[in-house]
């Protein structure tokens, strides 16, 4: 009888562990995240904006001197962070691909921002990708870079979504708009699909947009919810697109899973009981992170229910109780389920964080295996 009990303990532990490894997280499971403080460059604050599948993390951090700098974070939390542009007045890193290529922007002497491909060694051999004011938001594994830049139009200048020449050769492609003046690209996947937002003709508001990467203008309006504005922030390699849209006015904004066909069958991902939410990243497994307002009006890092069923999870409930962390923003999730963002650490400082799924059942699994193994090695002492 005891042997069966040990076996049952082992089976239950194994089952829970397998579910944990799948990182399909629902309230009430034993899965927790380990929080790693990514530190700064010696200053007071930092923010992590992107993580690749290798676990490399970029963002921005404050040094002990001057303005914030683009940063390659030490994922171990040991503080060996790399300042990516030590010569510039201000810089920021927006995206890192699986090859470790990093893009973002720099601003020399408080001047106009320039789209930048950073030297990951921190030695400053960076490549400027735009002649005009611009910024890179995303880089895929082929080295294609999407973002936006200032372009010349008939009656002046406008901000247009841009596919940048990653070599720095200047063969950049203006991705156009939806007939209006402005647009911006926020994400490019490994198939070269690009999403962002663009203004249709005759409206000051921008709509979430799937851009024609050739620049021929066959852009797709991804539509709205019940309001008049929307934005697509991330597209995975399966073509799933997330972002946000307003409901009635800009005082009520909800995270959205967009219909990529442009037919308007968009999914409202809801909130945590408050009025607002934003989705910032979707991985290849369809896991979505961002932030949402709770019923008390606080913004919290959130793992969204992709079905729109409202079973969104406050990431603060999935870390060790009493850790002292407040997770306010979740900006990126990789295919391993690792999440980065910005929160308030136990010392009250706004720091970049890394969340690593760490099943609480691992210990139980080990105990079950040990008990089962030891029990099966004992000689029979009679009928049980």
Would you summarize the structure shown here?
The chain is mainly beta and 384 residues long. It has a domain of 51 residues.
What does this structure look like?
By secondary structure, the chain is mainly beta. It has a domain at 1-29 and 363-384. It has 2 helices and 28 strands. A 4-stranded antiparallel sheet has the order 1-28-27-26. Strands 2-3-4-5 form a 4-stranded antiparallel sheet, with no helix packed on it. A 4-stranded antiparallel sheet has the order 6-7-8-9, with no helix packed on it. The chain is globular and about 55 Å long. Mean pLDDT is 87; it is low at 5-29 and 361-384.
Would you tell me the overall average pLDDT?
Answer: 87
Broad shape: globular
Number of helices: 2
Name the beta content range: over 45%
Element-level helix/strand string? HEEEEEEEEEEEEEEEEEEEEEEEEEEEEH
The helicity comes to: under 10%
Low-confidence stretches: 5-29, 361-384
Strands, helices and their partners?
Elements: H1 2-21, E1 31-37, E2 42-51, E3 57-63, E4 69-73, E5 82-83, E6 90-96, E7 102-107, E8 114-118, E9 127-128, E10 134-139, E11 145-153, E12 156-164, E13 173-174, E14 179-188, E15 194-200, E16 207-211, E17 220-223, E18 230-235, E19 241-246, E20 253-258, E21 267-270, E22 273-282, E23 288-294, E24 299-304, E25 313-314, E26 326-333, E27 339-344, E28 350-359, H2 362-377
Antiparallel strand pairs: 1-28, 2-3, 3-4, 4-5, 6-7, 7-8, 8-9, 10-11, 11-12, 12-13, 14-15, 15-16, 16-17, 18-19, 19-20, 20-21, 22-23, 23-24, 24-25, 26-27, 27-28
Helix pairs in contact: 1-2
């Amino acid at each position: 009888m005891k042997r069966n009990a040990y076996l049952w303990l082992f089976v239950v532990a194994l089952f829970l562990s397998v579910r944990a490894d799948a990182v399909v997280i629902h309230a009430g499971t034993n899965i927790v995240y380990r929080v790693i403080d990514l530190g700064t460059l010696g200053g007071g604050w930092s923010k992590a904006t992107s993580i690749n599948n290798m676990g490399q993390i970029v963002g921005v951090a404050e040094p002990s001197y001057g303005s914030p700098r683009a940063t390659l974070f030490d994922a171990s939390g040991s503080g060996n962070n790399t300042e990516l542009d030590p010569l510039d007045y201000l810089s920021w890193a927006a995206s890192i691909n699986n090859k470790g290529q990093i893009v973002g922007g720099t601003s020399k002497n408080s001047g106009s921002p320039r789209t930048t491909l950073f030297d990951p060694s921190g030695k400053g051999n960076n490549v400027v990708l735009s002649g005009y004011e611009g910024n890179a938001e995303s880089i895929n594994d082929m080295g294609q870079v999407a973002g936006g830049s200032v372009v010349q139009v008939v009656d002046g200048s406008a901000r247009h979504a841009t596919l940048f020449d990653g070599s720095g050769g200047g063969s950049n492609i203006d991705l156009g708009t939806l007939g209006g003046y402005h647009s911006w690209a926020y994400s490019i996947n490994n198939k070269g699909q690009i999403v962002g937002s663009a203004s249709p003709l005759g409206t000051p508001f921008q709509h979430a947009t799937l851009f024609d990467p050739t620049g021929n203008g066959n852009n797709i309006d991804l539509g709205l919810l019940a309001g008049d504005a929307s934005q697509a922030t991330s597209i995975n390699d399966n073509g799933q697109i997330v972002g946000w849209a307003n409901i009635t006015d800009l005082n009520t904004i909800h995270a959205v899973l967009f219909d990529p066909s442009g037919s308007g069958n968009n999914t409202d991902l809801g909130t945590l009981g408050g009025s607002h939410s934003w989705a910032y990243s979707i991985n290849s497994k369809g896991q979505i992170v961002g932030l949402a307002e709770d019923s008390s009006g606080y913004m919290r890092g959130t793992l969204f229910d992709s079905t729109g069923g409202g079973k969104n999870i406050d990431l603060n409930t999935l870390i060790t109780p009493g850790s002292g962390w407040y997770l306010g923003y979740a900006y990126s999730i990789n295919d391993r389920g690792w999440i980065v963002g910005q929160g308030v650490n136990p010392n009250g400082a706004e720091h970049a964080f890394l969340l690593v799924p760490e099943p609480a059942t691992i210990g139980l699994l080990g105990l079950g295996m040990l008990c089962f193994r030891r029990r099966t090695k004992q000689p029979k002492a009679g009928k049980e």
